[in-house]
Amino acid sequence: MPELRKDPVTSRWVIISTERGKRPSDFGTEPERGRSGFCPFCPGNEDKTPPEVLAYRQNGSANGPGWQVRVVPNKFPALQIEGLLNRQGDGMYDKMSGVGAHEVVIETPEHGETLAGMRDQQVEDLLWAFHDRVLDLKRDQRFRYILIFKNYGRAAGASLEHPHSQLIATPIIPKRVREELDGAKEYYDYKERCVFCDIVRQELSQGLRVIGENDDFVATAPFAARFPFETWILPKAHHPFFEDAEKHEYVNLSRLLRDVLLRMEKVLTNPPYNLIIHSTPLRETDGRYFHWHIELMPKLTHVAGFEWGSGFYINPTPPEEAAKYLRDITL
C-alpha cells in the first residue's frame, strides 16, 4: 500500500509508492526506444490493461477494439483506490495511507498519433473523457483534488509512446496547487477581483504575449514564465471548475489547444512537453477567486541546482519573444 508522508518543514506531502519500488540499479539511464515492439495501449491488446472504467466507441464491446478514447486504471498506480485514509502520527511526523485514484486516458487507437495531429473532434472527445472521469471520481468523499496531466516525450516523463494522459485523485490538496489557491485568494481579498480574470483582460488589451484566442479562450505566454515557451490557456469568462465547462467551450478549447501545439511543433521541432489542468479543489464552495486553466510547458531546459536550491527559475527566452515566434509561424 502506498503511503503519504508530510514534510514537517515545508508541509509538502510526498507519495512513498511501494508499488513502484526501485533498487539503486533500477535508476540507470535507458536508451531511447523506437516505435516498434509491443504496446499495451494499441487496439487488440485491451486484455493487457486493467478493465476500462470509461470508453467511447462506435462499435465493439467493452474491453475490446472499436474505441476512440479509453480510460483504464494505471497498472502501477501511485495511489490505490481501496482502503481508508488512516491518518496517524509517527512521533513528530504525519502520515496516512496512500489512498487515491490513478487512471490512464488512452487518447487514440493510433499508436503514432500526436495531440497536435489529431482532428478537433478527437481532442474534444479527450476533454469529455476528462470531464466524465472527474464527475465520477468527485463523488468519492475521500478525494480533495483531481490533477489531469499529460507527459509527452521521454524527457517530459512519458514511459510509453502511445498517446495518453493521466488523472490522479488525491486525498489532500497538493502544495503547488495550494500555493496558487492562496495567492489567488489573497489577490481577491485585496482587490475583490479574480487575478486570472485580470490577467486575461490585461493580456488581451496589451497583446504582447497573446499567442491565439477564440470566443471562449485565450492562449498567452505568462508574464513571469518559468520556462522557455511556457503557455497558459485560460477561459475568457470566469469559471472555477474545469468539469463545469459547456459544450461550446470544449469545442473552442479543443481548437485552440491543437493550434498552440501545432505552433510549438513547428517552431520547436516537436518538443517534449508537460500539460497540466489546474482546477478548483473538489470540496471548495467559494468559486469567486480561482479560475481553471491549462499550463503547457515544453521541456527545453533543465531544472538544476540553483532552481532546486532557491525556488527561482531562469528563463532564457522572454515570454514576449516566445509569443511572437508562436504567433507568427505559418501553419
How many DSSP helices? 6
Order of helices and strands: EEEEEEEHEEHHEEEHEEHH
The proportion of residues in beta strands is 15-25%
Low-confidence segments? 29-34
CATH topology of the largest domain: HIT family, subunit A
Q: What is the total domain count?
A: 2
CATH top level label of the largest domain: Alpha Beta
CA(first)-CA(last) distance: 48 Å
Coarse shape: globular
Strand arrangement, major sheet: 3-4-7-9-8-13-14-12-11-10
CATH-derived architecture of the largest domain: 2-Layer Sandwich
User: Can you count the beta strands?
Assistant: 14
| Overall pLDDT metric | 92
Which structural class is indicated by helix and strand composition? Answer: alpha+beta
The biggest sheet, with number of strands, parallel, antiparallel or mixed sense and barrel status, is:
10 strands, antiparallel
Describe the structure.
With 331 residues, the protein is an alpha+beta fold. The protein has two domains: 3-19 and 38-174, HIT-like (HIT family, subunit A), CATH 3.30.428.10; 176-328, HIT-like (HIT family, subunit A, 2-Layer Sandwich). 26% of the residues lie in helices and 22% in strands. The protein has six helices and 14 strands. The chain has helices spanning 120-137, 175-191, 195-206, 247-268, 305-310, 319-328; strands at residues 3-6, 13-16, 54-57, 67-73, 88-90, 93-97, 101-106, 145-152, 164-170, 210-213, 217-220, 231-235, 273-278, 293-298. The strands form two sheets. The protein has a ten-stranded antiparallel sheet, sandwiched between helices. A four-stranded antiparallel sheet has the order 2-1-6-5, with no helix packed on it. A hairpin with a 6-residue loop joins strand 1 (3-6) and strand 2. Mean pLDDT is 92; it is low at 29-34.
